[in-house]
Amino acid sequence: MSKSKGNVVTPMDLLEKYGSDAVRYWAVSARLGLDATFDEAQIKVGRRLAIKVLNASKFALSMGIPFDADEAALAAAPPPSLDASAVTEPIDRAVLAALADVVESATAAFEGYEHARALEATESLFWTFCDDYIELVKDRANDFDGAHDAAVVSSARTTLAIAVDTSCACWPPSCPFSSPRRCGAGTAPGACTAPPGPKRRSCERRGRCRSRADRARGPPRLRCAR
After folding, report:
1. Tell me: the pLDDT tens digits for 143-202?
2. pTM as predicted
3. 3-class DSSP string for the chain
4. pLDDT digits (tens, 9 = 90+) for 202-220
């Protein structure tokens, strides 16, 4: 864009049309030190992602609650559990292990001011989480017919809650509006203001690096600022 050529594009129309998270997604996708080409198609991808974060998180945190539940039933529903010790099923543990890897990658990228790389790592797992994992476990997590053991149902619901809660801290600065709203809705009322960003825990245990199986038992638990 050049002011002398008169081809400057202001963001106001784009913000009104696609929303702030969509425009941030395009901006964060650009790497530091490189020229960023304006691409409205990339902003459309960002809007689709922001909507998916809202919808998928709401869906994941409402497992076991009938879609036609009234206000009283919603108020009586227990809050999602974030106790990783309840995660016992292999597929659920694998998701938490992958999530822990993303937290490590995103944290390292943010610390190196490589926000685009952090976005890539988070977004890649997010679409796998939505397209594959949720579809695989939604019947077990809902368990409307009571066909599943209580422990495996709890394992699925806890994994979904941890994944949503942790991703709240990984999405900013690309989707700061969409992700805090999901975190606040999924935990206690008023639980979230703005995610502080992912934080790594030490991988040392008795002087040795934690294995993937260890991390599956308890990935870095990230909570939004209260």
Report:
1. 988 889 999 999 999 999 999 888 877 887 777 777 754 444 444 333 333 344 555 443
2. 0.71
3. CCCCCCCCCCCHHHHHHHCHHHHHHHHHHCCCCCCCCCCHHHHHHHHHHHHHHHHHHHHHCCCCCCCCCCHHHHHHCCCCCCCHHHCCCHHHHHHHHHHHHHHHHHHHHHHCCCHHHHHHHHHHHHHHHHHHHHHHHHHHHHCCCCCCCHHHHHHHHHHHHHHHHHHHHHCCCCCCCHHHHHHHHHCCCCCCCCCCCCCCCCCEECCEECCHHHHHHCCCCCCCCC
4. 333 333 334 444 444 443 3
